[in-house]
Amino acid sequence: MPGKVTLVGAGPGDPGLLTRKGLEALQNAEVVVYDRLVGPAILALMPEQAEQINVGKQASHHPIPQDQINRILLDKALEGKNVVRLKGGDPFLFGRGGEELELLVQHGVPFEEVPGITSAIAAPAYGGIPVTHRDCCSSLHIITGHQRAGKELDIDFEALVRTRGTLVFLMGVTALPNIRAGLLAAGMDPATPAAVVERGTTPAQRRISATLETLGQAAEQARVESPAVIVVGSVCALAEQFDWFDSLPLKGKTVVVTRPKERIGTLSARLRSLGAQVWEYPCIATVPLDPCPALDGAMERLSQYEWLVLTSPAGVDTLWRWLKDHGKDARALGSVRLAAIGPGTDRELGKYGLRADYVPEVYDAAHLGAGLPAGGNVLILRAEEGSPALIEELARRNIAYDDVATYRTVYENPRSQELREAVEGTEGLLVTFTSASTVKGFVSSVGADADFSRMAGMCIGAQTATKAQKHGMTVKTAKAATMDALVELIVEGV
């Protein structure tokens, strides 16, 4: 029985513009066939176990011909696979999606099309240009500027001029001189406002504003490259007034996020909302210790403890997993009081209907141990290589404790070479560190012999900063060990 092919429009570049339905299809894919114009942030959403096939089409260069792409989709579906064809923008708007379905129809393969947000609307919007405005125009026209090799543009310029509407040309960078000449020859006013929006909706976006008469020269001087959209019409005069994207505080900045994959999304989303180009390189992962006799024994003696101390969201997840695996719920915690190292760990407790009885004012191991209002025994559930500062403070106060390792931190990154090139080749690169472990994982991934002098480590706390400084990084430390303070640090540091 054949599988299914789903054509998914990935949108124009901003991962936030991928539709919910598109994301669901992508995450359930067994095979993903994707194009060059799909952004890395969206590619990072592909399931790790999925077969990933890059068909990388770009202007005048098709390493894999269209008929071969069609065949790949068919063959993978006939293997019974759930296939996603991931295309930039919308598959049915100059995306050749219809062509890719024809062969599937011939062979009776089930398919679905998930529309994507088109750059024809999104790129101008991010450039401050509303493609319609009742004071400016009453129609919108989307035209392909793609020219087949050796052939002229097949566009009725006179008809376009007569519409007096907004004109948006896709894939038209190389054809810009001909587009401009065609519109002028058809009688369009040379003073008509116009613009080119390059790499729209991404942090690398540029808007070049001009008139129809001067647009070619302006684009040439700016060395505009594909992908870009060309917009012609009076609405372009509104760009400066309506510009919002270019004024974001982190526009043009590149930030590397090193948190574990399962916790990377929140920070990345906040940074992107501020205009940053975010590179997600999870440098650590947490692996539960299973079996874990020490945890089993401690939980059997839980009534003997006054406090249960958790030093990370991963520790909370491990605790809850143990309760679930043993047919228990929060009631099994009885009267034991809960301590969390910081608000992030406390929020993780909240996901399970729990809250911390104690969170130190300064969110680190030393202050947790020094301030814990304990008179009886303390149970600590944390990573194998937890900070010694916690137990040192408890010992100093003569508080009895059991320090139980419930998970292991693993340092791995399959994209190590890519990360090293970014560190050594990108001036002003900002790298976020949310724990000393992320520093260790980052250095392990890049290589301890790398040159870290061109980057800045944005650290969530003093212990993390100390770890980063040992490797010659320029380091800045957040005012508090919270994500809010870390984001504030990044914005202030720009």
What does this structure look like?
This protein is an alpha/beta fold and 494 residues long. The chain folds into 4 domains: 4-116, Cobalt-precorrin-4 Transmethylase, domain 1 (3-Layer(aba) Sandwich); 121-242, Tetrapyrrole methylase, C-terminal domain (Methyltransferase, Cobalt-precorrin-4 Transmethylase, Domain 2), CATH 3.30.950; 254-283 and 412-493, 3-Layer(aba) Sandwich (Rossmann fold), CATH 3.40.50.10090; 288-409, Rossmann fold (3-Layer(aba) Sandwich), CATH 3.40.50. 34% of the residues lie in helices and 21% in strands. The chain has 19 helices and 20 strands. It has a 5-stranded parallel beta sheet with strand order 3-2-4-1-5, sandwiched between helices. Strands 6-7-10-8-9 form a 5-stranded mixed beta sheet, with helices on both faces. It has a 5-stranded parallel beta sheet with strand order 12-11-18-19-20, with helices on both faces. Strand 16 (378-383), helix 15 (388-396) and strand 17 (401-411) form a beta-alpha-beta unit. The chain is elongated, with a radius of gyration of 28 Å. The termini are far apart. The model has no long low-confidence stretch (mean pLDDT 91).
